[in-house]
Backbone:
């Protein structure tokens, strides 16, 4: 029974370690702390799928108490409801882990679920674990044969049958007390939590020997059942031989022989039971041996026991050496992964800074390109305004030329007026001479002639002043026309320069746009490299967590193996 229990514990030790590594994984814990965002789902699925393949599990899962999400290697399986009381009970129990056999909702078959309690640094709780097909464990337990027809099966702590060769009994409704020959009192004695317990029952086929051994990891019992006749057959044959001798030799001698035979038979069996009990109870002394005193079945039992203990001692020593090697290797791997994780984190930090700088540079270049486009628009507007200014200056030059022409015409008219005034003055002078000749009759006419002459002189003076002003105006208009013409040429030069500036600004705008696109592509590449580096960092953290878990498990294995005492010759 103890051997079967040890084999069952061995089969569940590896997946239990894997479930613990999930619960301690720093990446999964960080993802849980963030509220399980969709961005991390791909990493979880890749990690869980890889672990499922490595452990040959039926499923790998993570259950979040905060969100109620039940995640498997395929992604979100479902959200917990009030019907999932097992999860609430497990989290409330405070147990570090539990192993339960239950029906899978997907396949409908029975599965062994390994649940490990997980807690993030910020206090969030969850459960991690694996689901294993129970068929392999059932076949392994069903393959055990004790004596001739003895068999073994598993029973839960409440007495319900968990794994049995008869699959109909493993439905959760059949209990140990209901099996043939067993009573409630007998079942209660076998299920008392002891490392070893036994009882004899009366079954339809005869008396049977039933033994049990508690498996704490499964919270279940290994039950072995074997016909008493098969187990005690050699002893009964020895007793029959002793009885025959007693009949021939005599009653007294027969009693002596029976006593000696009984002691010879019972003594080695008792010693073997004591030694096995010491090893099973945790003393771990594998240096003890039984004395081989005869060549009969009892001697063969002692020889087989010694060979078994010797093989077990060699196996324990090999496990010790292997555990030490694993501890050393896992320590080196853990140290290397820690260094690699630190360098990867530094690289990821540098890439994040580079990505941030590229984003700032991209924003600056985009702003420059936008400013260049704005400058191009303003330059185009300035060019248009300069063109309109040139046109206006041209119109002013033309107007000034027209004013100059009009001034010349006015000058000509003033010259005509001056000529008329001069002729009028001559005529008035002649009239005055003629009036003087006329004497008294021409005096009135002389007065008129004098007035006409004075008027002509004033007209001539005014005409001269107007002519002077016109000439000055013409001169100033000429200067103004020259300046306006020069301004027109300057406006043409400005227009050409503005056009050139507009072309340069357009080229700068195009170059800035191309530069912005190029920097954007570089930024995308840096961002992708940053994402890849972060993924690598997450994988390195997972590897470091696995190595650290392996290191602890190796130390635990070495601690467990140190309990056993082996022969020095074997150790050498």
Residues:
């Amino acid at each position: 029974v103890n051997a079967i229990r040890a084999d069952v514990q061995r089969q569940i030790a590896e997946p239990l370690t894997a479930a613990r590594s999930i619960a301690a994984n720093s990446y999964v814990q960080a993802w849980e702390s963030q509220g399980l965002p969709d961005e991390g789902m791909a990493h979880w699925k890749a990690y869980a799928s890889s672990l499922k393949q490595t452990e040959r599990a039926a499923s790998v899962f993570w259950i979040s108490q905060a969100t109620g999400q039940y995640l498997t290697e395929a992604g979100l399986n479902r959200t917990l409801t009030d019907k999932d009381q097992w999860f609430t009970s497990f989290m409330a129990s405070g147990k570090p882990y539990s192993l339960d056999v239950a029906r899978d909702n997907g396949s409908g078959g029975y599965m062994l679920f390994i649940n490990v309690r997980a807690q993030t640094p910020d206090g969030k709780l969850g459960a991690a674990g694996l689901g294993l097909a129970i068929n392999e464990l059932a076949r392994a337990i069903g393959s055990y044969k004790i004596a001739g027809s003895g068999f073994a099966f598993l029973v839960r702590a409440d007495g319900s049958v968990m794994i049995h060769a008869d699959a109909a009994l493993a439905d959760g409704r059949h209990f140990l007390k209901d099996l043939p020959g067993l009573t409630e009192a007998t079942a209660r004695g076998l299920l008392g939590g002891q490392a070893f317990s036994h009882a004899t029952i009366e079954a339809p086929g005869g008396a049977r020997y039933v033994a049990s051994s508690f498996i704490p990891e499964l919270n279940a019992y290994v039950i072995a059942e074997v016909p008493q006749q098969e187990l005690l057959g050699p002893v009964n044959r020895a007793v029959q031989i002793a009885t025959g001798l007693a009949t021939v030799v005599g009653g007294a001698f027969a009693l002596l022989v029976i006593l000696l035979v009984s002691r010879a038979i019972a003594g080695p069996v008792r010693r073997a039971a004591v030694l096995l009990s010491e090893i099973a109870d945790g003393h771990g002394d594998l240096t003890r041996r039984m004395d081989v005193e005869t060549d009969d079945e009892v001697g063969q039992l002692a020889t087989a026991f010694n060979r078994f203990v010797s093989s077990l001692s060699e196996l324990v020593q090999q496990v010790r050496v292997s555990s030490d090697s694993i501890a050393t290797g896992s320590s080196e791997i853990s140290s290397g992964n820690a260094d690699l994780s630190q360098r990867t984190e530094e690289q990821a930090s540098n890439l994040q800074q580079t990505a941030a700088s590229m984003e700032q540079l991209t924003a600056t270049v985009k702003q420059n390109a936008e400013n260049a486009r704005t400058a191009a628009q303003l330059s185009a507007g300035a060019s248009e305004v300069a063109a309109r200014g040139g046109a206006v200056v041209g119109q002013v030059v033309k107007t000034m030329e027209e004013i100059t022409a009009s001034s010349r015409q006015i000058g000509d008219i003033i010259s005509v007026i001056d000529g008329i005034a001069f002729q009028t003055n001559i005529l008035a002078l002649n009239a005055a001479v003629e009036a003087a000749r006329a004497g008294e009759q021409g005096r009135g006419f002389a007065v008129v002639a004098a007035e006409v002459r004075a008027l002509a002189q004033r007209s001539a003076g005014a005409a001269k002043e107007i002519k002077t002003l016109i000439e000055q105006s013409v001169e100033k208009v000429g200067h103004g026309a020259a300046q306006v013409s020069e301004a027109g040429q300057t406006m043409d030069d400005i227009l050409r320069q503005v056009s050139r500036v507009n072309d340069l600004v357009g080229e700068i705008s195009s170059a800035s746009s191309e530069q912005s696109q190029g920097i954007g592509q570089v930024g995308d590449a840096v961002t992708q490299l940053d994402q890849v580096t972060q993924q690598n960092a997450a994988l390195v953290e997972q590897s470091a967590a696995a190595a650290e878990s392996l290191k602890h498990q190796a130390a635990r294995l070495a601690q467990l193996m140190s309990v056993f005492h082996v022969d020095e010759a074997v150790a050498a």
